[in-house]
Amino acid sequence: MLMQGGGRRHPQFMTKGDKMSTPSRSLPGGTWTLGDLTVTRFGYGAMQLAGPGVMGPPADREGALAVLREAVDLGITHIDTSDAYGPRVTNELIREALHPYPESLHIVTKVGATRDEQGGWPTARRPEDLRRQVHDNLRSLGLDVLDLVNLRLGDAGGPRPGSLAEAFETLVELRQQGLIRHLGVSNATEEQVAEAQSIAPIVCVQNMYNLAHRHDDKLIDRLAADGVAYVPFFPLGGFTPLQSSALSAVAARLKATRMSVALAWLLQRSPNILLIPGTSSTAHLHENVAGAGLSLSREDLTELDGIGG
Questions:
Q1: pTM exceeds 0.85 for this model
Q2: Which amino acids are annotated catalytic?
Q3: Element housing 258 (H / E)
Q4: Which residues pair with 32 in a beta bridge?
């Protein structure tokens, strides 16, 4: 990870109080390669560290900083964020908690939306909007180069059809200028993913996907064949009571939580799926890590697969 004001920080240049972190072999799922970046498949999403509605500061700032530090201490090397969270709040917390960043840590951010005073997420995908957002992320995170930037498409209601060419080409230009290392897309249709790939390589797609919403099954398999990561958000969103009952039955049989089973299923669904569950609690962070390491039997998987059938 490149640092603002001067290249990579190597162990021999560490100052007192700085920490390096070695990825933990015990994290469930192992690792995945995003371009030339190796990350743990179990990552951390920072959105929940902001205040209510992802606006303003957290109620417990020290607690938020502790969660970030604990994530890195556990060996997590993939943190997902955006300067729109807060806005700027989660990025500033990440910088305060973890800068100077360990060599192994890779921070993924996204651009394409901003925040209004009502807490809405208006789109912001004009070239000038994207350039400003990239520079805002660089500044708030304290970086010279962003490891990976996702272009957020659609709106708060989900993906929307339409060309991404102008917006994505702007990010390609910023990558050519050395401000971005790798590119991805978020909240995208399958057609938009293909359009992005026709313009420049992408290393990940970040869409809503879980046991109940499996509209991206074919896309996940295609991306796996291409060596592209798929990063699902809302791993427990959109369940009906019947579906919840089925999930709860498997969880009860395994003496685990519903969230643990859902995370474990995602890791076992495909090797290119990366998890970024968020939490503002160190105890919950540990529960998520342990839960994602559940071993689901063929019987468990068959029962769970029926939820989205």
A1: yes
A2: 85
A3: helix 258-269
A4: 39
